[in-house]
Amino acid sequence: LTVYLVGAGPGDPDLLTVRAHRVLSVADVVVVDRLVDDRVVALARPHARIIDVGKTAYAGAAATSQEAITAMLVVLGSQGLTVVRLKGGDPFVFGRGGEELAALRDAGVPAEVVPGVTSALGVPALAGVPVTLRGVASSFLVMSGHDPDEVLAACAGHAGTSTTLVLLMAVATRRRIAEGLLAAGWEPKTSVALISRGATPQERRALTDLGHLGGALVDAPAVIVIGAVASLLEQRGAVASIPSLPTVRVDIAS
Amino acid sequence: LTVYLVGAGPGDPDLLTVRAHRVLSVADVVVVDRLVDDRVVALARPHARIIDVGKTAYAGAAATSQEAITAMLVVLGSQGLTVVRLKGGDPFVFGRGGEELAALRDAGVPAEVVPGVTSALGVPALAGVPVTLRGVASSFLVMSGHDPDEVLAACAGHAGTSTTLVLLMAVATRRRIAEGLLAAGWEPKTSVALISRGATPQERRALTDLGHLGGALVDAPAVIVIGAVASLLEQRGAVASIPSLPTVRVDIAS
């Protein structure tokens, strides 16, 4: 009887929260973005209705318009269904969850936010990159690369500082952004970590620098980390493999 | 046989990831910071050894020094124990996880990062505040308030922009930061959301503005959100209560 705006985390279903896991297991309807991993959608109960609204959360190319999705959530919620709106990462980090929550509140539909591990932080962390590090990085700025001018304006004051930049949805605009940052005084040797399809079996990592970011090969979706901490990127294979843990039963009570 | 650097999320044990829940249930030793909720520590298995290293992650007042904690993790990991290093929020967001991971790697001790929901984003989200919102906030900057001069330097270029500021550990320095931002051209009417002890039964929320932030009452630890999105803060009681969900058994296989 509630619409849950749920963060699915960066990909690996193990990175879902316990609460996300629980609401997925009782939802009547699950409304899914393209950025949500199939393995997460598979956690919905067998008879749940899955509505795939396509590419809405990514690169602005909407299979279903945001307005249509928001209206759909209001209608479904008004019908007394338990609805999970599942978004990659966190629903409030470039996820348009804020718009959906506002519309649901306006319509008097009960709604609850279930935060998730944002890809902006979780994907670098799994690759060994901390966005903050004592003596190295004391703050971080997270942006969408959708509008390079906006990115450059936001970064203007951070050249030579200890702020880590994290860019999402910036594969298409990385050349323009790199050129702008260099023009604004960023060092060409500034480390850049590129992580494509993070926290999935298709994950690819590459370490480069700002002077070479424009020409670097990188598949979307990717997380791009710019700053000294990026040099800590662990290349695939250098990471300790995850040991096999015993199967445990966890009683997830309400 | 691994040291897990685990994010415990903002407080509510339901916001742990499934992976965090699983490693807690098999750990021989759990090394805990003050900022970790007691309800999360209670998820460790009955015979696990719990080591409370006190105030290390908060405000610089270390009960056990960071160097001692890091050395302890290396020793415990070298003994072939399964160790969970449990931190409030995310281990790589002001959690000193980067230092600990580096030391473990240097010592050849297997280590793995388990990202968590950072309080910087999860606490505002649960209170209805999205750090990004289309047409309102297109980026966000997260900082520790420990060094106000550093905060002011990082924020210098963001006056009048659509960047949301999120401050952690800034209760003691909020007056100095507010004065500095006003002097740098921030509008006194800029909305500020104060959320103390987020995602715990003791949570308190307050909405103010930058002109009144210095004099606002707020208990530590708190998350302070500065920017237009802060005005969306839902006061306690206005939030739809969490409906009672059926108890489900979730098989958490390795």
Task: Explain what you see.
The structure is a homodimer of 254-residue chains. The first copy, chain A, has 254 residues and is α/β, with parallel strands linked by helices. Chain A is built from 8 helices and 11 strands. In chain A, the strands form 2 sheets. A 5-stranded parallel β-sheet of chain A has the order 3-2-4-1-5, sandwiched between helices. A 5-stranded mixed β-sheet of chain A has the order 6-7-10-8-9. In chain A, helix 3 (66-78) packs across helix 4 and helix 6 (148-155) packs parallel to helix 7.
Descriptive labels:
homodimer; about 250 residues; alpha/beta; five-stranded parallel beta sheet; five-stranded mixed beta sheet; 8 helices; 11 strands; disordered C terminus
SSE ordering of chain A: EHEHEHEHEHEHEHEEHEE
What is the residue-averaged pLDDT of chain A?
Answer: 89
Structural class of chain A: alpha/beta
Percent range for β-strand residues of chain A: 15-25%
In quaternary terms, these chains amount to homodimer
Shape of chain A: elongated
Q: Could you give the distance between the termini of chain A?
A: 15 Å
Largest sheet of chain A: 5 strands, parallel
Q: Supply the number of helical segments of chain A.
A: 8
State the helical fraction of chain A.
25-40%
How many strands of chain A?
Answer: 11
> Most extensive chain contact?
A-B, 87 and 86 residues
Which helices and strands appear, and what pairs or packs with what?
The structure is a homodimer of 254-residue chains.
Chain A (H helix, E strand, L loop, with lengths): L2 E5 L10 H9 L2 E4 L5 H4 L7 E4 L13 H13 L4 E5 L9 H10 L4 E4 L4 H8 L12 E6 L3 H8 L7 E6 L5 H10 L7 E6 L7 E6 H4 L8 E5 L21 E5 L2
Parallel strand pairs in A: 1-4, 1-5, 2-3, 2-4, 6-7
Antiparallel strand pairs in A: 7-10, 8-9, 8-10
Helix pairs in contact in A: 3-4, 6-7
